[in-house]
Amino acid sequence: MLILLLMSLTVILGLVDIVIKFWVESSIARGETREILDGKVQIRKVYNKGFALNLMEDNAEGVRIVSAYTTVILTIFQCLTLLRKKHLARKAGLSLMTAGAWSNTFDRWVRRYVVDYIGFQTKSEKLNRLTFNLGDFFIGMGSVLVLLSMIFSKSKRKKK
Description:
It is built from five helices and four strands; from the N terminus they run H-E-E-H-H-E-H-E-H. With 160 residues, the chain is α+β, with helices and mostly antiparallel strands.
């Protein structure tokens, strides 16, 4: 039952991000900013042809291929992990990571770029220029969960 729940979570979260990206594409002009939460969070449309922070944007084809392979490998690893007993945090983390990976890979193959749409208003001009999407947050949160799971799993084994 847990396997079905986590696989459903992966699919639903990935689709939510894809739907939001379609809404951003159709409703927000490039360069337009909409503020929410007293201006602390901004909705804007930014295109990213590379990896995070536009790394390798001049090699978009390579980025697409690496992204596809990585997403498939991550999905296989997620499925194999879901079949194991215990490790709930690791399973949840991999489910989040896989949702974000599929959403961003979908963009890279369908649009040829990733739509980023969430920015933050901070005191740092550099941080103000960064723009993310939900998939990026899923990948980040999932990575933290997997890392914590691995750390605590190792510490339990050392105590035995």
